[in-house]
Write a structure and sequence with these properties.
Layout: E1 11-16, H1 20-32, E2 37-43, H2 46-55, E3 60-64, E4 66-67, E5 70-71, H3 76-83, E6 86-91, H4 96-104, E7 109-112, H5 117-128, H6 136-148, H7 154-160, H8 164-175, H9 181-187, H10 192-206, H11 211-220
Parallel strand pairs: 1-2, 1-3, 3-6, 6-7
Antiparallel strand pairs: 4-5
Helix pairs in contact: 4-6, 6-7, 6-8, 9-10
Amino acid sequence: MNHGGVSGEPLRVLLADDHQTVLWGLEQLIQSAAPRMRVVGQASSRVALFELLKHTTADLVLLDLDFGDSCALDFIPEVIEQSLARVLILTGSTDCESHQRAVVIGARGVVSKLEPAAVLLTAIDRVAAGEIWLDRLSLSQVLDAMSKGARPDLHSQRFDSLTPRERQIVVSVITEKGARNKVLADKLNMSEHTLRNRLTTIYSKLDVDGRMALYHYATSHFRRLNPMTSVPNLRGT
């Protein structure tokens, strides 16, 4: 699939919201970002969404969490399986647990309807490019679930080997993508030398080669997660 204009074609976005006014506004927003993205369909119900997915090719589905009489949490995996599109949740809810659960079952990010339009467009671009779009706390909790609640496969075993402090470093690597080690070290309240040593340990445990590989590894295995578990104190030494 195109997934973000890799082939030079516009990103194909399918809109799913049970409010016609919201759909109209989202369409205007996507059109304002032409030619890098375009709307390929709109659905205002779950039935209409799956009917549309049968004959529409989308790179990204922008999906309302509270979708009419349904909750998107009930069918996100089905959307992904049927369309192979990346799913970005748009919601007016402030329930962090449901946001985290959406990512656990396959969504690539969550954006609040209260965010500025520019933030939504950025989230669409980032998710289409393969990134995860979550606030720092939610991302930390999802990563913790990876170590405590994931299926007992190779990837979850590797994450289970990480200490709470090492998981916090992984979170920072994801949320501060591209930042220099000194910037990460300052945010983590540790020396740059200590950060380098800890990153070396993390690379070894996860069998990756460098920060970019760590970023792609961590964001590639979110869909292996099971329901959320409690979050430990990550403010270690």
